[in-house]
From TrEMBL:
<dbReference type="InterPro" id="IPR012340">
    <property type="entry name" value="NA-bd_OB-fold"/>
</dbReference>
<dbReference type="InterPro" id="IPR044119">
    <property type="entry name" value="Adenylation_LigC-like"/>
</dbReference>
<dbReference type="Pfam" id="PF01068">
    <property type="entry name" value="DNA_ligase_A_M"/>
</dbReference>
<dbReference type="Pfam" id="PF04679">
    <property type="entry name" value="DNA_ligase_A_C"/>
</dbReference>
<dbReference type="InterPro" id="IPR012310">
    <property type="entry name" value="DNA_ligase_ATP-dep_cent"/>
</dbReference>
<dbReference type="InterPro" id="IPR012309">
    <property type="entry name" value="DNA_ligase_ATP-dep_C"/>
</dbReference>
<dbReference type="GO" id="GO:0003910">
    <property type="term" value="F:DNA ligase (ATP) activity"/>
</dbReference>
<protein>
    <recommendedName>
        <fullName>DNA ligase (ATP)</fullName>
        <ecNumber>6.5.1.1</ecNumber>
    </recommendedName>
</protein>
<feature type="domain" description="ATP-dependent DNA ligase family profile">
    <location>
        <begin position="105"/>
        <end position="227"/>
    </location>
</feature>
<dbReference type="InterPro" id="IPR044117">
    <property type="entry name" value="OBF_LigC-like"/>
</dbReference>
<dbReference type="InterPro" id="IPR016059">
    <property type="entry name" value="DNA_ligase_ATP-dep_CS"/>
</dbReference>
<dbReference type="InterPro" id="IPR050191">
    <property type="entry name" value="ATP-dep_DNA_ligase"/>
</dbReference>
<keyword id="KW-0436">Ligase</keyword>
<comment type="similarity">
    <text>Belongs to the ATP-dependent DNA ligase family.</text>
</comment>
Length: 352
């Protein structure tokens, strides 16, 4: 592979802001795997945000790149899985699998798509130092004939349209809005764009914690919500505490530590059948492989309020942020019914 921009490339990033800034280009914030796509003839590499290749996990995307992208190019985009009118991030996670046969089966069952939103090189020329407006025009021309599973990300310079997208797109599983300065070159690894994400709060049961990697202090609190059947489902974690607070939490939560797991709602976390039926905190991470995911159980008696952006199925998509303890709430009132339900939006209206 010989391209004017060679892998690995760290993608340009965005910093969080509270409101959508004026005077920029606006796009949806896609909830998928960020990918820098390198094509030199038949040679294709899909580079991840960390620089590690995603190529082997998405053979159908590689095939689509060969069929539809320019012969020699470097494109920034997002790999997503979309069906039934919305994005499905958890199905992307299933692709990170060591067995090639499993990857091929999933590629046929739930094929992924590529949403392209920036251009770094075209033919034999690097264009990454050109203003965004020029890169966007060149990308739109290069993908003028694109068809699914390759898509040009919709973009607008209208602040009013961006605000409408911010409210509409969430119902299709998107993550918010990204705002990009119009005259800016591509700056790998720098947070020079802006992102506005949805923010909500929920009251959750604390039913355990994981220790911090640095030692026997609280790393993250394990959160639960009761489903319609009265089962406490593991929905995510709350982290980002100062180190002093992590030490204090160990002492504060010590009276809730049971002598054994008998009666704990997640007592069966190590059983394979239980993992298949529910999302329990001992499940092996596809990303970390052998990472220690052991946890300290707590009697599910305390409630905290956390901030979250959005749900992926029955779980919080990202790590939640601590807001406050809720001694006025009882654990049985912490159900899925409290969560805001975004208005449904058919992703097919966006990915044409």
């Amino acid at each position: 592979m010989e391209l004017p921009v060679m892998p690995p490339v760290s993608p340009m990033l965005a910093k969080s802001v509270a409101d959508i800034p004026p005077g920029m280009q606006y796009e949806a914030k896609w909830d998928g795997f960020r990918a820098i796509v390198f094509r030199d003839g038949d040679e294709v590499e899909l580079g991840s945000r960390t620089g590690k290749p995603l190529t082997r996990y998405f053979p159908e995307v590689v095939e689509a790149v060969r069929a539809q992208l320019p012969e020699r190019c470097v494109v920034d985009g997002e790999i997503v899985i979309a069906h039934d009118g919305r994005l499905h991030f958890e199905e992307l996670l299933e692709r990170i699998h060591p067995a090639a046969s499993r990857v091929r089966t999933l590629a046929e069952r739930t094929p992924a798509s590529l949403v392209a939103f920036d251009l770094l090189a075209l033919d034999g020329e690097a264009v990454d130092q050109r203003p965004l407006t020029e890169r966007r025009d060149a990308l739109a021309a290069a993908l003028a004939g694109a068809r699914p599973p390759v898509h040009l990300a919709p973009a607008t310079t209208s602040l009013e349209t961006a605000r409408t997208w911010f409210s509409q797109y969430e119902g299709a599983g998107l993550d918010g809005i990204v705002a990009k300065p119009l005259d800016q070159p591509y700056r790998p690894g720098e947070r020079t764009m802006f992102k506005v994400k949805h923010a909500r709060t929920a009251d959750c049961v604390v039913a355990g914690y994981r220790e911090h990697k640095s030692g026997p202090v609280v790393g993250s609190l394990l959160l639960g919500l009761y489903d319609a059947d009265g089962t406490l489902q593991h929905v995510g974690v709350c982290a980002s505490f100062p180190m002093a607070r992590r030490r204090e939490l160990v002492e504060e939560l010590a009276p809730l530590r049971p002598d054994d797991l008998t009666g704990h709602p997640w007592a069966a976390w190590a059983e394979e059948d239980a993992q298949a039926a529910s999302r329990l905190p001992g499940a092996v991470s596809r990303w970390t492989g052998k990472k220690d995911l052991s946890w300290v159980p707590l009697r599910p008696e305390r409630v905290i309020e956390v901030a979250y952006d959005h749900m992926e199925g029955t779980r919080f998509r990202h790590t939640t942020q601590f807001r406050r303890w809720r001694p006025d709430r009882t654990p049985d009132t912490c159900t899925y019914e409290q969560l805001d339900e975004p208005v449904s939006y058919d992703l097919g209206e966006l990915l044409q």
